[in-house]
Design brief:
It is found in: Cell envelope. Pfam families: SBP_bac_5 (PF00496). InterPro entries: Peptide/Ni-bd (IPR030678), SBP_5 (IPR039424), SBP_5_dom (IPR000914). Belongs to the bacterial solute-binding protein 5 family. 22% of the residues lie in helices and 23% in strands. The chain starts with a strand and ends in a 19-residue tail after the last strand. It is built from 15 helices and 27 strands. A hairpin with a 2-residue loop joins strand 10 and strand 11. The strands form 7 sheets. Strands 12-13-14-5-2-15-23-16 form an 8-stranded mixed sheet, sandwiched between helices.
Length: 618
């Protein structure tokens, strides 16, 4: 079968797995547009002598690495989408695969050999042509260097050989069929630059600027926890972006971003709290968008951190290794109150691992299986398991010590803090203590296994493979000193067996059923409890942004897309920018709770694009 690419006028964008883990915490993000003004070197002050249109995305999440071989956080992987092209992407309307660096692809009858045609019009920013050799080198490096496989190794673990017989032909031979061959969320890097890198575990791609890439933007500068600067790639095959500069600027406080929006200093704010969204609905020149999200928000318990070599590490509470304790804790979580009081209706009650936005993979537990809110049942489970209350009303563990847990909380996320208070109340009534550790950086204790529970969340891709892979035994770190791709150190043979089956299943309906079985198994292990599917609640100034691409087209989100659509398509108000195809324009009107997209491109409706994450990750 040959899949033919649409014309270049068709546009696409997780994961990666939206990779949305909010295991390291993305809080309020904002977009600052200074029409007809440039920004100074600090990424935030206006250069009064300039005349550039500068679009600044303010984020509260730190960049973990600018190396696409290491990065896991949503901010970092989103930046990589802007810097590098991938073989394929996803249509923004319905998530089907559309071309990226590859213009077409075909598989052999036995599905073990895949051949990709690499486009001739993709050029690295240093002037060299992007070829199949770049893609082959990228994949082979991941296959032969464990450090290069840190972020995306699950995609290449089944590869047998990868070759480039000519500049426009990439051939991948598989050990067994693999369902993700049109969803390989791996940034393709320039071989002539990266083959000079020594230790892939330490190289962060953040010293020599500009960084060579072939995406819509070129990385030009970076300072830790200050800013990331990018300039338009004038040679990008889809057409260059309409803003003269894109800046991701670090902000710790979301309220400051909202205040800046009201003053006209900020043009776009995401991850709004209900109170913030309410206050902005009546603001002049401001639109609030409340769209179904692609993330889940969950409680994760430490299952006993362990590396692939069998070494145990971390300081997780041993009582949480008891299924009865985990189930009791989850029975004492009132998800309806969380939706009503914390999210104030801007979310859907969580159950399965994949949000309802992805209907074919969405799963719900049976009535008998469901761990619903039932404090009496929670208390009974603890009693039966031998965790009795002492004279002070505290539950006592089998070691005779009171049950006191810690939960990792993102200091930048008000939802974590609010839900933490409810958990302290609910679990306190059970006789269990809870210390809420709100940190600016939860990554360090998380990867060391130094936690009992944590607030967890990921953005999910149209293809769920990546967000499922982070719970396989293979995703754990090689040794306690290493960093793996695991989310929460879960290792379960039954889950792994189902993961292996879905990975080779090309029949969509059969694969969807396997994915649902995986969610059921993950639910039953009781290491995670999905509490909510938050909406994407965001706002922007209509006198700053004339148009910007949403995903999906109907009731879609703007920030946190898995891809470059929003930042690539954004058009400053008062300026008529040409599109990627001969001067046509993309108009996007975003209203409260809905998005209406009107697209004209050489007489064709413009297809757009998808995913977490990985994307989108984090």
């Amino acid at each position: 079968m040959v899949t033919k690419a649409p014309s270049p006028s068709a546009r696409q964008p997780h994961h990666r797995f939206v990779r949305t883990l909010l295991a390291t915490g993305l809080a309020a993000s904002a977009l600052v547009v200074a029409p007809q003004q440039a920004q100074a070197d600090d990424g935030g002050e206006h250069d009064k002598n300039g005349g550039k249109n500068v679009l600044t995305v303010a984020v509260s999440q730190s960049v973990d690495s600018l190396s696409p071989f290491l990065a896991a956080r949503l901010l970092s992987t989103s930046i990589h989408r802007l810097m590098y092209d991938y073989l394929t992407n996803y249509d923004v309307k319905d998530g089907h695969t559309v071309p990226g660096l590859a213009t077409e692809w075909k598989s052999s009858p036995d599905k073990l050999t895949w051949t990709y045609t690499i486009r001739k019009d993709s050029t690295w920013s240093d002037g060299k042509q992007a070829t199949a050799e770049d893609a082959a080198w990228t994949f082979n490096k991941m296959m032969t260097d464990e450090n290069a496989a840190t972020a995306n190794g699950s995609f290449t673990a089944n590869f047998k050989t990868v070759t480039a017989p000519d500049p426009q032909t990439l051939v991948i031979e598989l050990k067994k069929p693999q369902a993700t061959m049109t969803a390989l969320d791996v940034p393709i890097v320039p071989k002539h630059v990266w083959e000079k890198v020594g230790d892939f575990s330490k190289f962060n791609n953040d010293k020599d600027f500009p960084v060579v890439g072939n995406g819509p933007y070129i990385l030009t500068d970076f300072k830790v926890d200050q800013y990331v600067k990018l300039s338009p790639n004038k040679k990008f095959w889809r057409g260059e972006p309409k803003f003269d500069e894109l800046v991701f600027k670090y902000y710790k406080d979301g309220d400051a971003a909202v205040a800046a929006l009201q003053k006209g200093e900020v043009s776009f704010v995401s991850n709004l709290t209900p109170a913030q969204a309410s206050s902005l609905k009546s603001a002049e020149n401001v639109k609030v968008n409340d769209a179904p999200g692609r993330r889940f928000f969950a409680l994760a318990t430490n299952p006993g951190a362990q590396s692939k070599d069998g070494a145990k590490f971390g300081t997780g509470h041993p009582a949480l290794l008891d299924p009865a304790v985990r189930k009791a804790l989850f029975h004492a979580v009132d998800r309806k109150t969380i939706i009503d009081k914390v999210f104030q209706g801007h979310a859907v009650e969580g159950e399965g691992y994949i949000p309802p936005r992805f209907a074919s993979y969405f799963w719900k537990p049976t009535a008998e299986q469901k761990v619903d809110y039932d404090p009496a049942k929670a208390a009974a489970l603890l009693d039966q398991a031998g965790y009795k209350k002492n004279s002070a009303g505290k539950r006592v563990g089998k070691d005779g010590k009171p049950l006191d847990f810690r939960i990792l909380c993102h200091a930048t996320d008000p939802n974590d803090k609010a839900i933490g208070k409810y958990l302290q109340e609910w679990w306190g009534e059970l006789g269990i203590g809870l210390r809420v550790d709100c940190l600016d950086n939860v990554s360090d204790p998380w990867v060391k296994g130094d936690y009992d529970l944590a607030f967890d969340g990921w953005s999910v891709n149209p293809d769920p493979d990546f967000v499922l892979s982070i719970h396989t035994c293979a995703a754990r770190p090689a040794t306690p000193k290493d960093i793996g791709a695991t989310d929460n150190f879960i290792c379960d043979k039954a889950f792994d067996d189902l993961y292996a089956k879905q990975a080779v299943e090309y029949d969509e309906a059969k694969r969807a059923e396997l994915v649902k079985q995986m969610q059921s198994r993950l639910y039953d292990t009781g290491y995670m409890n999905v509490m909510a599917y938050p909406n994407a609640v965001e706002a922007y100034r209509t006198d700053h942004i004339k148009s910007i691409t949403t995903m999906p087209e109907a009731a879609g989100n703007i920030f946190g897309q898995d891809g470059y659509w929003s930042w690539w398509s954004a058009e400053p108000a008062g300026k008529t920018g040409g599109s990627s195809e001969g001067g046509s324009t993309t108009a996007v009107a975003v209203g409260i709770g809905a998005a209406v997209v009107v697209v004209v491109a050489a007489g064709l409706l413009v297809a757009r694009r998808r995913r977490a994450t990985a994307e989108d990750r984090e």
